Every structure is written in C-alpha cells, then in structure tokens.
Amino acid sequence: MRAIDVFKDVSADAVKLERLGGLTNRNFRVDSPLGRHVLRIPGAGTSEYINRHNEAHAAKSAAKAGVNAEVVHFDEATGVMLCRYIDGGVTMNADRFKDLGSVRRSAVALKRVHEGAAPFLNRFELFQMIDEYLDILAKKNAPLPDGYHDVKREAEAVRAALDTDAQRACPWAGCPMIRALGCASKPV
Q1: In sequence order, what DSSP letters do the residues of 111-146 get, joined into one string?
Q2: What is the DSSP-derived secondary structure letter of residue 68?
Q3: How far apart are the C-alpha atoms of 127 and 144, rounded to whole Å?
Q4: Structure confidence at residue 37 (pLDDT)
Q5: What residue ranges do the domains of the chain occupy?
Q6: pTM of the shown model
Q7: Burial classification of residue 187, based on how many CB atoms lie within 10 Å of its CB (0-12 exposed, 13-18 middle, 19 or more buried)
Q8: How far apart are CA 19 and CA 33, in angstroms?
Q9: Residue 40 CB coordination number (10 Å)
C-alpha cells in the first residue's frame, strides 16, 4: 500500500483489507483513515490484452460522467488501481439481470457514459477483441469450451450486420458487469 502515494504516510496498523470478488483480478476493500477504497491488483497475464493507458483514461472519464467511482491512483505500468469504494454498490450478475430495476439502472448508467463521458482513446470492437483473445488462447494451447465454435459461427450474422452499419463511436468502459452499473457514485 505504501507504493501508492496517498498511503505513504498511513500506518499499516491503520489499514484493514477485505478480499472482494473478481474473476480475473484480485480486489480488496481498503478501510483506512483516508476512507474506504477498492484496490485492484490485475490478474496474471491481463496486460497481454488490456491497454492500461486506455483503461486509465476510460475509468477516469466514466468517473467524471458519474458512473464509476473516483480513480485515486492508477499505475499504467502495473495496472494497479485504487478507487473510492461505493457504499451499497453491487456487482451485476445473472440474478441481478433478472431484476428489471437493476437492468434499468444499468441502461441509464451506460447511456450516461455514452452521452456524457469524454471520448475514450480506443474503440471497443467486440468481434476484433474475440479474435485477439482466440489468438492469445491458441498461442497458449488453451482448450475452448465445448460448442464454442458453433456459437461463434452463429454470431457471425451479428458481426456482419454490425460491419454494414456505421456505428457512432461512443465511450464504453468495457464489461457491463462492473460495480458501477449496480450502484453508480450518484443515484442513476
């Protein structure tokens, strides 16, 4: 924690860490005299497919639009990020997507990002990203789930439709399963 400037003078005894969920990263709630924060330590190998400079810009832009927690620290070399903790925030998951109120709040948050955030530095190209991920997995000889290629073939119609329609470029923070969708820093 002392490697993060805001914590350099905070005693380790004054800091309480609680492990939070996460599929790829290690996330911790940090309670200290400075308040509540979330520390994100990126998972091994994630820098192979995530541009940390673009990610930092997107996280800060989404925070300014009111749909992401304030980013207190972002180390582009390591991907370590510290942001304010959102009390009562929840991560969207399959069950929460069954709740229409959660879905509505998610849609409002995404709309706010699309309409109010500063332009991001890159475009989110889903199918290009899928191709890049498949290349990474192939290089690692990683197995794919049964039926994956069948689903990918079926999705080609969606790819073709999107490729023929000039889409307006708009900000996108990445995965819609982020905590910000369940409970933004301000009610949405």
Answers
A1: HHHHHHSPPPSS---HHHHHHHHHHHHHHTTPPPPT
A2: S
A3: 17
A4: 96
A5: 5-119+170-182, 126-164
A6: 0.71
A7: exposed
A8: 19
A9: 20
Phi-psi region of 35 (alpha: psi -120 to 50; beta: other; left: phi over 0): left
**8 A C-beta contact, residue 153 and residue 60:** no
Chain position carrying tokens 């199918």: 127
pLDDT of residue 166: 61
Nearest to 184 by CA among 90, 104, 99: 90
27-43 pLDDT, tens per residue? 999 999 999 999 999 99
Q: What is the pLDDT of residues 67-92, one digit of tens each?
A: 889 999 999 999 999 999 999 887 77
Please, are residues 89 and 182 in contact by the beta-carbon 8 Å criterion?
Answer: yes
Query: What stretches of 56-112 adopt beta strand conformation (E)?
Result: 71-74, 81-84
Residue 153, judged by CB atoms within 10 A of its CB (0-12, 13-18, 19+), counts as exposed
Question: Which CATH number does 5-119+170-182 carry?
Answer: 3.30.200.20
Question: For residues 179 and 91, what is the distance between their CA atoms, to the nearest angstrom?
Answer: 4
Instruction: Give pLDDT tens digits for 86-135.
Output: 998 877 788 888 999 989 988 888 888 888 777 777 777 788 888 888 89
CA distance 19 to 7: 18
Contact at 8 Å (CB) between 107 and 187? no
